[in-house]
Write a structure and sequence with these properties.
Layout (H helix, E strand, L loop, with lengths): L5 E2 L1 H8 L3 H10 L5 E2 L5 E4 H8 L8 E8 L5 H17 L6 E6 L8 H11 L3 E6 L2 H4 L4 H9 L4 E4 L3
Parallel strand pairs: 4-5, 4-6, 6-7
Antiparallel strand pairs: 1-3, 2-3
Length: 161
């Protein structure tokens, strides 16, 4: 599976959490060679990122159902979300590898299961995340998180727009 995204040095440096100067030094020293445009400008690819991080051999990426409610009193709603998403997946011939049930506020960024899911996205282990509504994933900033995990070739499928 090839990812076609090309990164400017500043974006790639941010992805690796290093400076652009470090990337330039690595290029000179042969640690991480930059690719070059016809006008000799540096750029990097997503495949280079995966290889550098040692993640280039992850072939089996998971499809995950993520369901969340705010309180224990809403466990019936949690079960309904999961059932709805399983039916959706079956109708679309999507094989679900994991179901994540989370109880906690959509405003809380310290949910253990949610953070573990984000880490797995950054490790290129997740192909798709199925959610019933945007706010089941996160209450505010959904588009930012969608764009962020999209950098790791993970997509969020919102079933009820």
């Amino acid at each position: 599976m090839k990812h076609i995204t090309n990164y400017k040095p500043s974006d790639f440096a941010e992805l690796l959490n290093v400076s652009v100067k470090t990337l330039q030094r690595w290029d000179r020293e042969g640690i991480l060679h930059a690719k070059r445009t016809p006008t000799n400008r540096r750029y990097y690819t997503y495949d280079q990122y995966l290889k550098f991080k040692g993640l280039d051999n992850h072939v089996d990426r998971k499809i995950v159902i993520y369901s969340r409610v705010s309180t224990n009193n809403q466990k019936d709603d949690l079960a309904n979300q999961i059932e709805f998403l399983k039916n959706f997946a079956n109708a679309k011939d999507i094989i679900v590898d994991e179901v994540i049930k989370d109880i906690g506020s959509g405003l809380n960024y310290n949910r253990k299961k949610w953070n573990k899911l984000l880490e797995e996205c950054m490790e290129n282990k997740i192909d798709s995340i199925l959610v019933t509504h945007k706010d089941r994933f996160i209450r505010f900033g959904f588009e930012w998180f969608e764009r962020f995990i999209g950098k790791f070739n993970t997509k969020i499928i919102v079933v009820n727009q």
